Give the backbone structure.
Amino acid sequence: MEVIPNQERKYLGAPMAKLSTDIPELVEAFGPTLGRIPAGGWPDTREDDKLVKTHCCFCGQQCGIQLRVQDNKIVGFEPWEDFPFNRGKLCPKGIKRYMQDEHPDRLKSPLQRVEGKGFAPIGWDAALDRVVSEIQRIQEKYGKDSFAVLTGASLTNEKAYLIGKFARVALQTANIDYNGRLCMVSAGTASKKVFGIDRSANSWNDIVDADVILAAGTNIAECSPITTDYVWRAKDRGAKLIVIDPRLTPIARNADLYIPVRSGGDIGIFNGMLHVMIKRGWIDREYIAEHTVGFEEVERTVEKYTPEYASKIAGVPAAMIIKAAELFGPAKTSFVMHARGIEHHSKGVDNCIAMITLALATGRLGRKGCGYAMITGQGNGQGAREQGQKCDQLPGMRGIEDPEARKYIADIWGVPEESIPGKGLSAIPLMEAIHAGKIKGLISICFNPVVSLPDANFTREALGKLEFYTNIDFFLSETAQHADIVLAGSLMEEDEGTTTNVEGRVIHHRKVVAPPNGAREDWKILCEIANRLGKGDKFNYSGPHEIFDELRVASKGSVSDYYGITWEKIDENNGIFWPCPSLDHPGTPRLYEGGKFGHPDGKAHFIPVEWRPSKEMPDEDYPIILTTGRVVAHFLSGTQTRRIGALIDQIPQPFCEIHPNLAVKLGIADGDYVKVESRRGKVVVHAKVVKTIRPDTVFVPYHWPHDRSANNMTIRGLDPLSEIPEYKICAVRVSKTEQPIDAIAKLEVQAGGIR
Amino acid sequence: MTNADFFIDYSRCIGCQACVQACSECDTHRGVSMIHLETIERRDSVQTAPQVCMHCEDPICARVCPADAIKKTPDGVVQSSLKPRCIGCSNCVMACPFGVPKYQVAIDQMMKCDMCYDRSSVGKMPMCAAVCPSGALTYTTLRNIQQTRPGVPVNEWQFGKEIVRTKVYVMVPPEISRVEVGLVQITTTAASLPDDPYDVALMLES
């Protein structure tokens, strides 16, 4: 193959982030601007042409929603009260989600970077030619693995499957990973190690029947609002609720016990609870003997976690740990759930193991009102980690280094087994390899790492070192601003496919409208690139339905077996829970019934865990703990929700939650401009003085870009097993400051400005 | 849903504003929300409270309206002001004991919650109750709420010496049969205040 010469890239090797023009100009041209009314104004009240039953594109709950269509435009929504998961209920994001349709910022043509000017439209042929020639040039010069793929967990199962295959077959690169690496990997790893299956163990109905609910690191009211209804209904029955979180979030207001754990201290609470439960005989030794292995070592490990010892780790009074054990221990039924609060740590996997050990040691799994759930964050947080877009997995959660799995998938793909690359780099090491100049080219979709990865200044620097970067997106995200070629893709409602919700229920997203002229369905873009790379015969699909049928076969016999799930069956049953191994199988809403687990020996495996400090602990120079997270009106990096007027009206800009005791010490009053600064970067935001947070901790939500990005401060500390970054604790200092008046500060709030 | 009533259960509210956002999607007033979501005192707690029109049996907003612009339907729903009649005087805004009607400057007219009359009169749920993820707003039968919730529904209020009965119910602890809204003299010495139940710093000291 001929080496194509490097095309006039004078800016190459510039030390800092390279943008084609400055940020205010890019914002001027591509937004984010705010969509407030549907295109062409509010619709008249005549009958809608169509009312399409589909699902929300945002979080892992994937609520059912109906979208109203008039003249091939989405003009509103109607609750879908018959969909069993959410019964018509929605959060503000779902309600206003349709405002992203027909949005003025919508990309309706591929774009090419023009130095000094920003971006200019380019035809599809020219754009795809350039992408393909750069892929070929870079791979020829630096090797196959020098071109990487970053993808996302808000993609359908079909797209997740397709892009995993695209990386391994069309690009033949080992380096593909996804933003679920920032989300579900600690939970998944823990669940797999202990239970042998990476999925929430129950349908949500079991929450309602639990006598005690233990919720740690999960801001249910804001990040998974519909789950609130299940928790409150359990409480209506008399259930006790224990909430563990450094912040007293709305769900904690009605808790029977709220434990304001110090971020990173969760193992103290879980091991301390188990210590008390063992002492008082509140574990199920019969269940343990029959269905598990390894408990003796756990018992030895927690021996030293007396309430007093545990309380020092957790940073809370010992009495709270005893009370938690007293509420949880003797209950007849219980439900354990966690989310990013305990997972986003350099010991995220251990945190999760320590927590689910409580469910296992009491034998309260696999029956009515008894179970365990990790609350997925992203739209397809569950399904997107099953279909083979993780750096170490093939479809069906098969290990990419497992010879049998490789052979099985190679046969389905029609490629030699040895042509499938091995294990690649996960998201953060991949970005580090870009920074180090080892990876030279990148294609990304459904991922905005400039906002979502930790240590954002490092990410910006890294993107500046790429020789070629292309991005498939529907809006020009802050990351896409760094691209050489942007390919105009599709919104969820403009394509069809399935996702797998927080419960493991596979559901059907229907196509509501076509992409606008000039944009294309994501799967078509990927298939066309593959085609131009000479692999068209492996990507010859008539549509997502056909991709799903291939996925079903690829997952057959695996842990996450979709073989028996068809789109038709999903529609008839309001979703099907995997595993579903045959066409006549009804699916599996509840795992581990009868104490049967996913490991080859059929047993659950206890794993002892010890607490260890976080990567960066507060010290003299940076004495305060920063923890980050989400707010109810926004989703992830805000690419979509920062373009919706009603959501920006609800929560316009980030803030720094700070306890009055700490605020007084620092001379800070509510509403002051404050600088929050770590060793890696800073933000200036408004102080929000509240008594509902630990006095040693501040909180900044992360949905905003540039100088308002919480990830300027966070640390690239990874869990050694899951490689999830430590978003939930790093060390900062906080000080009062003046109103910033630079060009970024003057931008609109949704673009990273401040008012 | 026939025979359905509207229930507010403040203890369930998580402040997400789904009700506010959904209200602004109602076909009769697109883009403008009629529901109020009050943040009680964010410094001290995360408590929030949604406020829909309570639809008084004898609506004072209608009684004080000099233009006779506010009508109650036979099924007890107090309508928003009639456009041809409303003179924008804001008597109703000041008189309502629940703070519901708001004067809309742009259209020189009072607007308020009408329980999504276009929806509820044809058996659909009002938008806010349909979407509310916490059940703080619920549209169901009295019987169903009595069977499923630990609190009791009441729709009688005492403001000073005046008793107000409303179509909308609020959920309260079982020992309460009427919500008494009186003036309370707050003594401001710190010692007289109870310990702050939601102060995380105090919890850690215990």
